[in-house]
Amino acid sequence: MLTSPTPRWYASGVDATEGHAVVQAEWAYVTGLLPADLEESARAYGALRRRRHITSAAGLLRLALGYAMCDWSLPIAAASAEMLGLGKLSHVAVLKRLRGCGPWLGRLTGQWLQERGLARDLPSTPLRLVDASTVSAPGSKGTDWRLHASYDAGTGCFDHLELTDAKGGESLDRFAARPGDVLLADRGYAHAASLVKVMAAGGMFVVRFPWSTLPLRDVNGDVWDLLAFLKQIPDAAAAGHEVRLTAREAPVLRVVGVRKSPEATAAAQRKAKEAARRKGKTVNPLTLEYAAYIFVATNVPETIASDVQVLEIYRLRWQIELAFKRLKGILQFDALRAKDPELARTYLLGKLLGALIVDELTVRAQLFSPWGFTLR
Do strands 252-259 and 238-245 pair parallel, antiparallel, or not at all (unpaired)? Predict the structure, then answer.
């Protein structure tokens, strides 16, 4: 039975208070978790060029985490830096230092995952939920940043995090598929070239796809009628059919579908009509027909998962939606105040690294009672 435990960093009720604890009361424990090459990486990524006032990489990281996790304004960050003994800086000096931290924080986040075995290239069979979430800059009505993530349903933790600007599109190519991996993704990831790459790497997928975009053929390479297949599915039952992507020589996939209930169908059709209306268009009649079904493409063998099990697996994809909601709701990931791109990157990556630190502290407190950390 597949389960998805609640990620510890948001199960414990993390908020700005927890952020203050990490930066202040628990900082001595945090330093024991930091990579041994912290100083070298800060210099290599250009985060620590001048050692005036802030003389160490750990001090600079403390300032960046305070800005991101505690939502300090620049003047408050400057005052806090002096109070914490990091040095006397103006808010302009703080701004300059924070603007240069983004690439370094991104490196630390990736290193953190790798050192804890969450992103190593080892043979395994994790169920990885793939999605992206957007963040807007202050005053913006569109997307300015996009967080791409892979969420391990077995551990309840993110195992891949990548931050891009709005031009960074959704693609399975961002997630290195390992032999045995099962990637779960929604319609935005249903690109034939990416699916072929996952299969070539020995990975598997369960991906929902739009009826009009994924080119499918029958196993002989002839044209295949998706809608005709779906209409043959009995009520309250799942069905699968083997197909190929575009060509006779392409790998064999399975399309698995299920008919929605009348209530769910009506809701989906209303949603499609409303989306078309907002764009000043008339909804395609085929869109309304396909709205009566859920269908996914998968290369998971039937010996591993039946048609029903494939659809049950796909249901778990909603767990990453919940993880994003909690990341935004508890750590205020989307409460972006910085308009400057470099400062925004520091803020967002600091939030992510801070979430991982809180997770680690919570786990260690549970495992190493009564003092809550590992003695060295």
Answer: antiparallel
